[in-house]
Amino acid sequence: MPMTDTSRDLFPGALEMMILESLRRQPAHGYALVQHIQLRSKNLLQVEEGSLYPALQRLLKAKLVKAEWGLSSTNRRVRTYQITPAGLRRLEQQISSFERMFEGIALVLNPGKSPAS
C-alpha cells in the first residue's frame, strides 16, 4: 500500500482539543474558530467546515460547549460557541494525556534525549 501525504491529518480528538482551547480563550463562531486555529498553527493546520461543524455538534451533544444565536458585526446571523465547565475539565484531561503521548513519541523518535519541557 503506497504512503500518502497525511501531514495535515489530525489524531482522533485533536480537533476537539483545539476547539476547546480556542473557546477557553474567548467565545467564537465557526469561521472565527477556523481562522484562530489556522493563525495559531502558522498555517500548518487547515480546518475544513466539513470537519469543524460535526466536531462542534459532538461537543454540544456532550455538553462540553454551549451555543447561542446572535448577529455578527456585519449583521449576519451566527451561532457563537462557548466552553462549559465540563468542557474545561475535559480540555485539561486531554492536554495532560496529549503531553504524555507526545513525550512517549519523542522518546521513541529521539532515544537518549529527554523531551523538551
Task: Present the secondary structure layout.
Elements: H1 14-25, E1 28-29, H2 30-40, H3 49-61, E2 65-71, E3 77-83, H4 85-109
Antiparallel strand pairs: 1-3, 2-3
Helix pairs in contact: 1-4
Q: Order the strands across the largest sheet as they lie in space.
A: 1-3-2
**How far apart, in Å, are the first and last alpha carbons?**
37 Å
CATH topology: Arc Repressor Mutant, subunit A
- Portion of residues in helices? 40-55%
In total, how many beta strands? 3
Estimate the mean pLDDT confidence.
87
Under CATH, the homologous superfamily reads: Winged helix-like DNA-binding domain superfamily/Winged helix DNA-binding domain
* Binned strand content: 5-15%
Q: What's the order of the H and E elements?
A: HEHHEEH
Radius of gyration: 16 Å
Uncertain regions spanning at least 5 consecutive residues: 1-7
**Main β sheet profile:** 3 strands, antiparallel
Keywords:
117 residues; alpha+beta; Arc Repressor Mutant, subunit A; 3 strands; 14% strand; elongated
Describe the model:
With 117 residues, the chain is of the alpha+beta class. It has one domain: Arc Repressor Mutant, subunit A, CATH 1.10.10. It has four helices and three strands, in the order αβααββα. It has a three-stranded antiparallel β-sheet. It is elongated and about 55 Å long. The termini are far apart.
Short description:
By secondary structure, this protein is an alpha+beta fold.
